[in-house]
Amino acid sequence: MSFNDRALPGMPPGTVYLNDLTAARGAKEEIILHPVPSTDPNDPLNWTQRRKIVNFAFVSFYTTLVYALVNIQTVTWGDLNTQLGFSFGILNDSYAAGTAALMVGGVILIPFALKYGRRFVYVISLLIQTGMAVWYGRTHTVGDLMGSNVISCVVGALSEIMVQMTVADVFFVHERGFMNSIYYWVATVGSSLAGIPAGYITSSSLGWRYVWYILTILLGVLFLLFFFFYEETYYQRRKADIVDGEVVGATSEASIPGNDNRVNEIEMTTPEKLSNGDSKDRYHESLHNVNMELPQVQTVAHRYVDYSIPQKPYLEKLKLSIPTPAPFWYYCRHSYQCFVVMWYIPSVAYMAVLNGASNTAQIICITVLSNYLLDAPYNFSEADVGLMGLAAFIGTATCAPLIGRLSDRMIVWMAKRNGGIYEPEMRLWLILLSAPFFVLGMLLFGLGLYHKLPWPVIAVGYGIVNFSITPAGSLSLTYLTDAYTEIIADCLVGLVVVKFGFATIIVFALTPWINLDGLQNMYIIVTLVFLVIYAGNYLLIRYGKRLRERCAPKYFQLADRQILNVR
């Protein structure tokens, strides 16, 4: 990692100088921009806020439609059963096949994302998803059902990976928490809220096929918008060449303007290295001295952009793919490198498990709702079951913007108290604080169904569950982006594999488990297991920095193999 990325010497990846405390006494400290942007106005980090918001709005709409395409199929199952004769066993198998496809999709397609860039993947995936929506609407055989479902889910697996890569490209560390919360919110719109209009369309005179025809139109419009207006967010910061599959000629840290070898020789003073008699002021003074040795930084209020550099013309901004120095086969190693990352960097594996657990909790609730609310004493219709998605949406919509803003402001405050130093683990306190709400929501929902409590109680429990899993779902992504920026693609592929691996297992195991232990015992066991997983955040808060220090050599080795990031 170069000093352009503002990593501190002697510190692990992810530890950055976030607050400028070197101003004159009484002056207001400033937030240091990380990653440090170039002076090029074409750098996405230097885009205007409006331009960034427009870019992310495209990505958000993309996320909503992809999640809708993958999730709303269950709303049409009743008509598929009566009109086409598909048994519910076949329909469940198609759902399981879809979750398995989501699990392997990132592994299969990540080389394309790294080789050809963000814009290429968004545009091509939208074209494929539009075709899959048409195929869904023209379903007549089991082969149609399985084929369209598997292909759309394989391609849909890229949505989570690509959005995080885009966030890392465009936004600074102190902004990522909020942007990831927005991503989580729009994903919930697609997965939970889209089923409501789909249910009404299915039960109307239009019929279930028009669910897919309307989605085809929306995907087609978005494809045209991306093709003509969406800008590539990848920006090449350092040059590298490939000779016989190896990286050569990459810009070294010592050759970066403003940086020299003596910077690399600075020994970072940490609280552990201070004697008992040393004060906290001396620790902060040492940080000040290190900051004076580092290259000039940019802050929120003081930016350095060279507007003599010409802006890219319209056609160049909209090139379908980007030039990369390596052949395609070189990027194929990323199809297995995610497993290497999770093996050598435990923090990545834990965050994948945490994110997967939060997603699994939601899947368990959705599955149980569909089975129990249709029976007495509730006797819900399919449309009524779909309306329960409002509870999930309200829970997520309430928490997501709150947790995003709060985490971004909290890390600035905590970094200030830490001598201006930001540690990615600072965000994880909010996940710990959400654990009691998770226990309350899961038990209220599960035990409420078991004891046949009134449906508003079930809805409140469902809403609390979704409220409580939002910090784990969004902040786990932000933590990985902040701590392991240069290998974020591999981290996210691993996260997606674990996340949908859990989902695939639960699709097959949930009904037999309930039959064996009963609904109440199943929910108690799930709550306790997930509570232990949530408690792992405390261990990461306490020992996460040590893990990053210990794993730093392997991290930099893996980062050197990220050709797109050796820039």
Automatic annotation (TrEMBL):
Protein name: Major facilitator superfamily domain-containing protein
Transmembrane segments annotated in the record for this chain: 53-75, 95-113, 120-137, 149-173, 182-204, 210-230, 352-374, 386-407, 428-451, 457-480, 487-510, 522-540
PANTHER family to which the protein is assigned, alphabetical: MAJOR FACILITATOR SUPERFAMILY (PTHR23502), TRANSPORTER, PUTATIVE (AFU_ORTHOLOGUE AFUA_5G00430)-RELATED (PTHR23502:SF50)
Domain of life: Eukaryota
One Gene Ontology cellular component: plasma membrane
Alphabetized SUPFAM superfamilies for the sequence: MFS general substrate transporter (SSF103473)
Originating species: Neohortaea acidophila
Primary location recorded for the protein, binned into one broad class: membrane
Location in the cell: Membrane
PROSITE patterns recorded: MFS
GO MF term set: transmembrane transporter activity
Membrane topology reported for the UniProt record: Multi-pass membrane protein
Domain Major facilitator superfamily (MFS) profile: 52-545
Protein keywords: Membrane, Transmembrane, Transmembrane helix
